[in-house]
Amino acid sequence: MLTKLKLALLIAAPLVAGAATYAAAQGSAPSRQTLIQKFDKNGDGVLDDAERADMRAAFAARRAAHRQAMLDKYDTNQDGKLEPAERAAMRDDLVAQRFQKLDTNGDGKLSLDEFKAGAGRMQHRHGRFGHRHHRSAPGAAQGAAQGSKGAAPGQGMKL
Q: Would the pTM of this model clear 0.90, i.e. be above it?
């Protein structure tokens, strides 16, 4: 039973993350305008160096608080860092929490309607810069098209 649940969670997590990322890209994430309104102290509509520094400090404080909360909860040996087993426990717990949020009727299964509704509600960011680091470099599509046709063995496009 537990193995089936873990397997279901492992399969559902990337799907939920992808759908939630799509929903976030559609406008549910904080906009640039919202950030400017929050950190623009002089009201000129542009963040100057001091305002950017304040924004960075606020983000750093938020990350530090989140990191400390994770350490408090999952650092069982109290060494100030998460060992591989502690990280695995954290991932399992977070995946189980996400699954429980999606499973609105509590039957232990995700229906398509629950999945769609949850994907619209959840916000998931990929890495520090969102999706910007996933974009192709100029000419990458051209290189990919040529990668398997005219390239010598072992000289295809590197990923």
A: no
